[in-house]
Amino acid sequence: MNLIEPGYVRTMAAYNAAMNKRLYDAAARLPDAERRKDRGAFFHSLFGTLNHLLWADHVWMARFDGWERPTVLQKDSASLFAEFDALRAAREDADRRIIDWASRVSADWTNGPLTWHSNTTNAEMTLPAGYAVMHFFNHQTHHRGQAHALVTAAGEDTGGTDLLGMVPPIS
Questions:
Q1: What is the pLDDT of residues 44-89, one digit of tens each?
Q2: Distance of CA 170 to the CA centre of its chain
């Protein structure tokens, strides 16, 4: 079953990078204490949420494109980086690499199986690659929404967030 096409992957990779830039620009305007303030989110703070999101992107990209897996476990993902500037640089690098990977994704790959060992379930998993990619982008959007709410609560604005107003379809 063909769940997604390569154009979806490329469009979502571009949207991911554009939204991350807006989110990090807004976060950079906040004092560090505001970024680290526990605001009751699942990963407590904006900083923790941004760390977890980058951690998860690296985990999935290890499965999709052979990236090195993070050395910290999921339960410690909110502390992947200790400093905001280092986190931001790593986010920008990851977004460039995700766009590069997306440019190489083929319909054959998205329609094929993806097998990996899940540390969360401690089991081998096999799913259609396209379904795993859908989860990857959905996870980004979910946690970026949380981060957006945290930035807004801290008094900053990212500007518009709608896909339709930010990124044209990419084939």
A1: 999 999 999 999 999 999 999 999 999 998 888 889 999 999 999 9
A2: 19
Q: pLDDT tens-digit profile of 145-170? A: 999 999 999 999 888 888 878 788 88
Residue 37 burial (C-beta neighbours within 10 Å; 0-12, 13-18, 19+): middle
Backbone angles phi, psi at 7, to 5 degrees: -60, -35
CB 102 within 8 A of CB 133: no
* Choices 1.10.10.10, 3.40.50.10420, 1.10.760.10, 1.20.120.450: CATH for 6-162: 1.20.120.450
